[in-house]
Amino acid sequence: MKPNVAAAMAELSHLEIDENPATIRNKSRDFFWYSPVLKAEMDHLEADFVVNPKTEEEVIEVLKTCYKHDVPVTCRGGGTGNYGQAMPLAGGCVMHLTGMNKIKEIGAGYVVAEPGIIIKELDEELKKASGQEMRMIPSTASQASLGGFIAGGSGGVGSANWGALRDLGNIDRLRVITMEAEPRALEFTGEELHRVSHAYGTNGIITEIEMPLAPAYEWVDMFVRFDSFRTATEFAGQLAAEPGILIKLASVYAAPIAHKYFQRVKAHVTENDHLCGVMVAPQSMAGFQTLLSRYEGGEVIYRSDDVKWDRHPGPVFEYGWNHTTLRALKFEKDLTYLQVRYGDDIEKIMKAYETFKDDLYMHLEVMREGAGLSFAGLPIVFPKDKAQLDDLIAKHEAMGCMIFNPHRYTLEEGGRQSTDQRQLDFKREADPKGLLNPGKMIAWDEPDFDYADMYSYAKITPKPEA
Ligand code: FAD
């Protein structure tokens, strides 16, 4: 089936379409360049056109028309994904959803919104209208959309208390449009949510989202300095574990990250200082101070409710999660990163810290996981080519650390490295021609793919002729 892009564009011409080459290029890109491997593999990718639907009816029209003319559709929110999720591997149509940005309902403990709303704007409105806020946001909240977070993200600021997006109760309901001759609108709750959440828009387009909320607080942002990486890590873990202390963020940056890459922090730390970035609810500050007093050398050097620094550092969460790497990249363009799951084993983290001293700087985020905690690692990795990165990943895996490989663009390799049968089954039902974000789901393209041979997958779906 050869896509007929011209016919699809002609039929959709009454919608808002971008044909300007610079806009198309711009909207065909996300943060894929975080990875030197993806940069080399994906830099050339470009859609044929970009459409900006404003309503669900327009989304249905785009999907129906592109289905008829066999045109691939890759959805885009804020375009901040760092696994190349929103890159149109097979060209065709990029459907840009930030025009679908209405808040439909705010109630006690929930919000219903369209997918294109920018998360920061949603959070500000929630706070103003109801004194509530999102349980968790990506550190890119000022640019990222709610739909992109659900379809491409995993958790973030708030996960120290609420766990990951995939945890039960962290998404209430999703409305999804299929890509068929007659697209259907389906409502998913409970077990069905996993069909489309974190599926990169490969099997349906999310047009309405109901999310649970938490009470909003004037969070106290702090930087806390430590002499030892172990103490900083133990403190961050215990802070998240304390049942009576409410926090939203507990990040650990091994020395010399803060001194080397955090411009507005640099004057207040040495290159030997290890730093924690935390967000604590105001009513929990007394408990926080008591806990900190139990950790040798722990010292609050910045707090947002009592700023003594000449230059305001901005929100502390914009130093955490993937922003740590972003700040480092501003200084050294060849750096990259990994995404690691260490679980709650601090000895394993210390072993990795010693073992990989010549390869990376440690950066940890504490997350609630089940009844306990897990440390997520987003270490800053010194310049490496593909083979060296694969080797570093293999060494981590040998140590029992799971890797969400950020140097691959497929769902499975960036995720749990296995077929998600629910997502695959739903793709068969909802996208029979395989036109939604093609090339991102290995299970669809290569059913016999051997995950034990993780590093051999390098196939890019060829761009069809227009
Ligand atoms: P996009 O990049 O536009 O899209 C992401 C994926 O979702 C794509 O596959 C796209 O096709 C699909 N998609 C978008 N909208 C829809 C829809 N309506 N229906 C179906 N599919 C759709 N991620 C985290 O989880 N936590 C973090 O803390 C975090 N921090 C980051 C920091 C930096 C500096 C960077 C570069 C990235 C970070 N990310 C993080 C990754 C990313 O920013 C988030 O996942 C963000 O929520 C993605 O939203 P977006 O609107 O930019 O999505």
UniProtKB/TrEMBL annotation:
Its Gene Ontology molecular function terms? D-lactate dehydrogenase (cytochrome) activity; D-lactate dehydrogenase (NAD+) activity; FAD binding
Signal sequence bounds: none
Where does the FAD-binding PCMH-type domain lie?
42-216
Q: Which domain of life is it from?
A: Bacteria
Keyword Metal-binding part of the UniProt annotation: no
Question: What keywords would UniProt list here?
Answer: FAD, Flavoprotein
A Gene Ontology annotation in the biological process aspect, one of them, is: lactate catabolic process
Q: What is the name attached to this protein's record?
A: FAD/FMN-containing dehydrogenase
Q: Which organism is it from?
A: Celeribacter persicus
